[in-house]
Amino acid sequence: MADIESRLGELGLILPTAPTPAGSYVPAIRTGSYVYTAGQLPFVDGQLPATGKVGEHHDLIEPAAAQAMAATCVLNALAAARSVLGSLDDVVRVVKVTGFVASHPDFTGQPGVLNGASELLGEIFGEAGRHARSAVGVAVLPLDSPVEVELVLEVA
Amino acid sequence: MADIESRLGELGLILPTAPTPAGSYVPAIRTGSYVYTAGQLPFVDGQLPATGKVGEHHDLIEPAAAQAMAATCVLNALAAARSVLGSLDDVVRVVKVTGFVASHPDFTGQPGVLNGASELLGEIFGEAGRHARSAVGVAVLPLDSPVEVELVLEVA
Amino acid sequence: MADIESRLGELGLILPTAPTPAGSYVPAIRTGSYVYTAGQLPFVDGQLPATGKVGEHHDLIEPAAAQAMAATCVLNALAAARSVLGSLDDVVRVVKVTGFVASHPDFTGQPGVLNGASELLGEIFGEAGRHARSAVGVAVLPLDSPVEVELVLEVA
Fold first, then answer.
1. Domain ranges in chain A?
2. In CATH, what is the architecture of B4-17+31-155?
3. pLDDT in tens, C16-64
4. Which residues of A touch C138 (CB under 8 A)?
5. Which residues in B lie closer than 8 A to residue C122 (C-beta atoms)?
6. In Å, how far is C106's CA from the nearest CA of chain B?
7. B152 and A36: CB-CB below 8 Å?
């Protein structure tokens, strides 16, 4: 069993309380050896740090800012998973990351944005954090969030 | 085993026959303890009740109408699941709802639209209907449908 | 156990080497009896055959071309699966296909595009290739790819 909770401390990461869903659902579900998280927005203390579409133009969310928000989505997803697991030490591996980036139609750098999620999972879980991933650019996300990330985790 | 088939009757809900896929695939697949449904459109008697993008402007699909269509997608998804299960009494829990809303780029109320799906699952399955959910706003959906919903179910 | 590797030969299909991910993730993950592939772009020898949005207008990617690219995505997804399985003979069934089509907002033929993926899976796997599927039209995809496809496979 990996000591993921200690690892969070070493990295100076403090998970938020599990986010309140934006609708009639729950933050995460355990089923058999898996946890599915809801799609997570980059809430910090209940607020989105920015809203809008991601792209290179001056009135859009900069890709680097969106990348940081993808990492925040992961922290919220892990908080959601912990809320059903008790401890993240029960995570065997990260299976799948699906990331949606609210994108200006000219913006094609979704993989770079999602690296903010993937690299944080690598720092926290090491080899067990390696995952399959899909990244897509969508027209708009709930509450005009620039990024939304969901996880599938294998658990003990 | 929950008596879901009776519950449908109490709620006055009649599932349609399993929808005909819009392409070379099947309405639902059972694998191990899970059923994955195909993405469901809000067909009623083989017709979409409306087409277009969802939003607040006068030429768009109203969010309340889209919310009702999300519930119709759930009925179609349950019909698809029943077609491989025989009876919905075999459903142990709803695991995941993924909802796509064809959205005007200004429309950020996807969670409200998807509540039409989530709340109906709650009415039908009670506690076992609580699920993780992702809602995203996409550019366009097959046949210009305003909404598409897919389910993952845990089954006995 | 199906003899899928021989079947590929009969069809004259040669899988590429597993595609290099566009970010900090892996092409596929095995977990229990399942393989999840990453979202696959239609790379051929490391290049996208075309970029842009799919639609009927003259400056867009033609639906027939996008349909062929969806088949290429499947070949890349199967190469990714083989990289973690060793042999595709271990595939018990295709469970789920999720397909994203970078779409002009007027283009509603995503099911036809994804039939390029579904029909190839049928040719390769026969009955075991029948799958649930979701097809959506998104604003833009990584590297301006017209199509992205991911698979969930049940494996022995």
1. 4-14+35-155
2. 2-Layer Sandwich (3.30)
3. 988 888 778 999 999 999 999 999 999 999 999 999 999 999 899 999 9
4. 136-139
5. 24
6. 7
7. yes
